[in-house]
Amino acid sequence: MSKILILYIFFLQEGKGEDASEERQKLTEHQKAAEQQQAKLSKAEQECKEAGPGSSTRFISIDLQQTLTCPRLNNQRAYFRKKFNYHNLCIYDLNSCKANCFLWDETMAMKGSNEINSCLLKWIELNKSDGFKDLVIFADNCAGQNKNIYVILNCLRLLHLGDFDSIKIEFMVAGHSYMPCDRAFGSIENKIRKQSTINNPDEYATLIQTATAGGINVVRMAQEDFFDVKALKSLITLRRPKKFLFTEGRTFTLVKTKPWHYHIKNNKGSSEYVDLEKRKERSTSENQEQGQTT
Known about the structure:
The protein is an alpha/beta fold and 294 residues long. Helix content is 37%, strand content 21%. The longest helix has 34 residues, at 18-51.
C-alpha cells in the first residue's frame, strides 16, 4: 500500500462531517471490492492446484512490467541519455504455475491494447494444443491496455472462431491487488539489480529466462506477431451498459451461445448483457449512391 494511500486513510479516520463520512464509505466499498477480487484469484489458484494442467479450464493472469531501458550502465552521463525501451508482458499460467514473458522493443510496437491482445493471441497459439475450451483471465484495471472494448472484441473473435466455449475476464482493483505476475516481476527485478551493466536486449532476455529457480518461458515477439485488433470495432454497433459505466465493470463474461454479447457485472452485484450487434454491410447500390452525393 502506498504512503499516499496510508495518509489518505489516516485523514479519513480523523476527519469529521458529511464529506469525510462519504469518503470513508467510498473507501470501505473500494477495499471490499479489492478483497473480493483477490479472493477470486486465490480461489482460482487453489482450483488449479487441485485440477492440474490437464483441466478444460485454463486460468491465467496478465500484466505489463515497468519499461526496461537499455543500455543499463552505472554511469552518471549515461543516466541522462536517451535510452532504448524494451517491453515485457507476463502471462502467468496458473494451471502449470509457469510464467511466460513476451518481449519486444519500441521499434516494433507500442505498449497499448493492440500489443496486449497480440501477446494474448500468441500465447493461445502456443498453448491451444492442450485442448482447453474455457479461459479465465485476471488482469489489472488499466483502461488503455486491458479494460477496454478492444479486449472484449478480441475475445469475441476467439469465440466466433470456435477456439473457446467461454472467456471470463476478472479485473483487479488498482493499488490493492497482487497477482502471480508480480512475483515473477520481483524475481526479474532482483536479477537485474545484481547485474552491473546490461548492454543490449538479448541480455535482458537471458536474465528474465533465468530469474526464477524453475525458469521463465521467454517469447521474443516478431513484427508479424502484432495485429491491429482495434480494427474489429468497425464490424460492430458499439453499445455501452445502461445500468452503470463500462469502467465500473469488474467481471466480463463471454460465451459461445451469445456471440454478439458480453455480460458485465460490477462490485455491487448489478449486471446486464450488452448487445454489440453486427454492423450491416452496405449494398453496392448504397455505396454508389453515397459516392454520388459526396
